[in-house]
Amino acid sequence: MSSVIERLYGAAERVGLNALNVLARLGDYERRTLSFGPDPRQQLDWYRGEGAGRPLVFFLYGGNWRSGQRQDYRFVADTLVSLGCDVVIPDYRLYPAARFVEIFADVCNAFARVVDLADTERLIVLGHSAGAHMGALLTLNTEIPATDRIKGFIGLAGPYDFFPFRSRMHWDLFHPPHHGHRLQPVNFVRASAPPLYLLHGADDTRVRRGHSKALLDRQLAAGGRVDREVYENMGHVDIILSFSALHRSRSKVIEDIRTFIHEDR
After folding, report:
1. What string of DSSP letters covers 117-175?
2. Less Cβ around it within 10 Å: N or C end of the chain?
């Protein structure tokens, strides 16, 4: 994709997100911004609804590890608050200013900050696209501190098995090359992992649904708990747009997420 087309696509996407977030600002919740490091990208927004002990959702947005900002996803927080949750949305450094090892370090440090401050035992990780990739790594890799606090993972249209890389950008992003195999969620499956819930659109051509099928099969083979939903007539962006105030009341995606978050285990 040429740089001109990328800029036009990004501008159109930003206009759409701004429109969604106008409605989200009407939600009844408190929002605080906290830092987890000195860089301007090392900040998170914490949304709190009314009442104590609500489930806390740690949401990681996508953007191919090189675009996005937490303010763009206020509409996601608004819907999750309406489902009875509190929500944290962190920013993280982006490629090419940072490589994946630094990007994921930001995610882990943001998570550690949240664990220190959380007042609930029900902590759920939710991610879309590249955010689902990082959320799955965060959930499955036992070497990351405090991941035993995670009670479930919800992945929306995530890439979980994409090594060897097909994109030159990905070879540079995940440099050095030998890290590639170690950064695939399918290689961290385990019976002791919290439940995984993998959601994918049948018409997703950006991250094909075979990724969630691969993680499903590997986690089942390891003896772990995992379920998968595939939604007809839904693409890569459609699944995150399900969180908009215009769609959520009639969205099967949102109803399935509500059930998973509040299900007793």
Report:
1. H---S-EEEEEETHHHHHHHHHHH-TTSTTGGGEEEEEEES------S-S-HHHHHHT-
2. N
**Which residues on neighbouring strands pair with residue 126, listed in sequence order?**
59, 154
- pTM of the prediction? 0.92
Written as six digits, the tokens of 196 are: 């995984």
For residue 231, give the H/E element and its range.
strand 226-231
Crossing angle of the two packed helices 3-24 and 74-82, in degrees rounded to 10: 30
CB 166 within 8 A of CB 180: no
| Residues composing the chain | 265
CB atoms within 10 A of CB 196: 28
Q: 181-232, pLDDT tens digit by residue? A: 789 999 999 999 999 999 999 999 999 999 999 999 999 999 999 999 999 9
Write down the domain spans for the chain: 3-262
CATH superfamily, domain at 3-262: Alpha/Beta hydrolase fold, catalytic domain (3.40.50.1820)
